Amino acid sequence: MNVLKVSSKSSANSVAGALAAAIRDEGESEIQAIGAGAVNQTVKAIAIASGFLAPTGVSIFAQPTFEEIEIDGEERTAIRFKITSKKD
Amino acid sequence: MNVLKVSSKSSANSVAGALAAAIRDEGESEIQAIGAGAVNQTVKAIAIASGFLAPTGVSIFAQPTFEEIEIDGEERTAIRFKITSKKD
Fold first, then answer.
1. Which of A1, A48, A58, A71 can pair with A53 through a Cys bridge, CB separation 3.0 to 4.6 Å?
2. ipTM exceeding the 0.90 mark
3. Contacts of A70-73 spanning 24+ positions with Cβ under 8 A
C-alpha cells in the first residue's frame, strides 16, 4: 500500500484528493505525519476527503498510532494514520 | 453525549484517560479542537487511548469534520472528532 507522507506545508486539499483516490481504488490508505503542523494538515485532509466521498455513500475512519522513525540519523516520533472505509 | 474540549495545553494522557472512560461507558465520544496545537494533542490522545483499550479487544475510529463556532463574537473553525468503537 502507498503511504502518503504529509508535511506542515502540504496542501490539505491536495492530500484530500490523493486520499480519496486511494480509498476509491483500494478501500484503504495510510498517511504519515511528523510534527503538529503536519498532523493538523492530515486531519484537515481527512475531513475534506470525507466530504469528497460522502456523495458516493463511502465513510472513512482514521486510526492514529505512534511510530518511531529515523531521519538523518535522528530518532523522531511520527503519527501514522490508518484510513479504512465503509460503504453504506 | 459529553463533548471533550481539547486545547493545545491539554495533556494528551489526561484526554486519553477521559476518552477511554467514555468509550468504555458509552461506546462512543466526541472531541472538539481549535487550532493546530489542539488538533495535535487530540490525535496523540486518540493514539494513547487506542493503546489503553486494545487489551480489552476494543478498537477506536476517528471521523474528523469541520465545525464553525463562535468564540467572543468571532467565527472560528473547529475540528470535531466523532469517535466510535468496535469490539473484536
1. A58
2. yes
3. A71/A34
